[in-house]
Specification:
Layout (H helix, E strand, L loop, with lengths): L3 E2 L3 H9 L1 H4 L3 H10 E6 L4 E3 L7 E7 L2 E6 L5 E7 L4 E2 L13 E4 L3 E7 H10 L1 H27 L2 H11 L8 E4 L4 H7 L4 H11 L4 E4 L2 E4 L2 H5 L2
Length: about 230
């Protein structure tokens, strides 16, 4: 059993930046903070497995959490990579009593968790909590639709280029980007096999993109936008 920690000032600030918490009024924010518990997980620890009885939804405070599914043959499909201020399993606030995917700590992570039953009860009492749940689910739906569209409309190099451009300053020019997590996680995030990610980076060399470990050097952001 992982040790339950106290909510410190930094963790509170991260929680309040989440779209869910930011949508709440001061009273509801305080009540949500009161029911939050904080815990750590080591790299590769499983937070919960698909099919287990659902007790909590989560917010990442530090590190990265991998959401994935398994088929009968044991093949894995990444659904999402969650970083600081990202929440997951909120869909269970509206419907469902079992987790719909597996979650694994990609590195040492700290998460806040919220008892689903308590938040459901709070949503019945406070309109802003109910609205925040609806808004959160709507945001995830739109994000999923964008993800599906990008998977079908973009080539592998275009997906990688799009991700890198999101990390770049708007003014362009030459820039160095450090990937926040290992490339195997980036591959899953972009819906690519690791070897497909490697081929995509090789293709992007023509646009002045070079990779050394987790550091990506982009010689010309403008050229990358043309991919």
């Amino acid at each position: 059993m992982n040790k339950i920690l106290k909510l410190n000032v930094r963790d509170k600030g991260t929680l309040l930046r989440t779209p869910f918490m930011a949508a709440l009024g001061p009273v509801s924010q305080a009540r949500m903070l009161d029911i939050a518990t904080v815990t750590n997980f080591e790299p590769r620890d499983i937070l919960f497995r698909e099919g287990e009885a659902a007790e909590y939804f989560y917010c990442v405070l530090a590190g990265y959490v991998r959401l994935f599914r398994l088929n009968r043959e044991g093949r894995e499909a990444d659904i999402r990579i969650c970083g600081p201020a990202d929440t997951f399993a909120e869909c269970l606030l509206a419907v469902g009593n079992t987790y719909r995917y597996n979650t694994q700590a990609a590195e040492t992570v700290t998460v806040a968790r919220f008892d689903l039953q308590k938040v459901r009860a709070l949503a019945e009492q406070e309109n802003d909590v109910a609205r925040a749940v609806i808004q959160c689910l709507s945001d995830h739906l739109l994000m999923t639709m964008d993800c599906i569209a990008n998977d079908r409309l973009q080539t592998a190099p275009q997906r990688v280029a799009h991700y890198l451009l999101d990390q770049c300053p708007p003014e362009g020019g030459s820039v160095s980007v450090r990937l926040p997590f290992q490339k195997s996680l980036l591959a899953g995030k972009l819906g690519l096999a690791p070897e497909a990610l490697s081929r995509a980076f090789s293709t992007l060399r023509r646009a002045g993109v070079t990779v050394r470990g987790r550091v990506v050097q982009i010689d010309d952001v403008g050229a990358l936008r043309q991919i």
